[in-house]
């Protein structure tokens, strides 16, 4: 995903899941698949993968930012706002700028995340 090759990323994450189905970090592969779908503009599909990752690892709250951005880009603004509200309860001082600064993603990915978060009123 960092190299902006979402189809290849999906293939690699799916292979990782097949090779190590009981991996305790399995949720990271789900997040990666979601991020790849987001990179392809498939925001509903991306949100589905992020939701699955959060079911496996509800304490990985940073995934909520990716999910909220995907919901926003998919036009699912109410779901995005609920996701953001839950995240901000845990991290009330978080802003878009801080979230993007902490993200290891490439600039185009970060830009899409920031745009989605701005769309639902995430604090700047």
Question: What descriptors fit this protein?
Answer:
Serine Threonine Protein Phosphatase 5, Tetratricopeptide repeat, single chain, 124 residues, mainly alpha
Instruction: Please identify the structural class as seen in this structure.
Output: mainly alpha
**By CATH's scheme, which homologous superfamily applies?**
Tetratricopeptide repeat domain
- CATH topology grouping: Serine Threonine Protein Phosphatase 5, Tetratricopeptide repeat
Q: Estimate what percentage of residues fall within beta strands.
A: under 5%
CATH-defined architecture:
Alpha Horseshoe
**Number of strand elements:** 0
Separation of termini? 26 Å
Topology order in helix (H) and strand (E) letters: HHHHHHH
Overall shape: it is: globular
Kindly state the percentage of residues in helix: over 70%
Radius of gyration: 14 Å
The low-confidence runs, each spanning 5 or more residues with pLDDT under 50, are none
Determine the mean pLDDT.
Answer: 94
Total number of domains = 1
Counting DSSP H or I runs of 4 or more residues, the number of helices is: 7
Could you provide a short overview of the structure?
This protein has 124 residues and is mainly alpha-helical. The protein has helices spanning 6-19, 26-39, 43-56, 62-73, 77-90, 96-102, 107-119.
């Amino acid at each position: 995903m960092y190299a902006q090759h979402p189809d290849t990323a999906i293939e690699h994450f799916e292979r990782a899941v097949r090779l190590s189905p009981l991996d305790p970090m399995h949720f990271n592969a789900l997040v990666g698949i979601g991020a790849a779908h987001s990179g392809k503009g498939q925001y509903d599909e991306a949100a589905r993968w992020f939701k699955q990752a959060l079911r496996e690892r509800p304490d990985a709250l940073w995934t909520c930012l990716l999910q909220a951005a995907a919901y926003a880009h998919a036009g699912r603004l109410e779901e995005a706002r609920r996701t953001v509200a839950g995240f901000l309860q845990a991290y009330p001082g978080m802003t878009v700028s801080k979230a993007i600064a902490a993200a290891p993603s490439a600039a185009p990915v970060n830009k899409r995340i920031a745009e989605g978060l701005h769309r639902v009123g995430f604090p700047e």
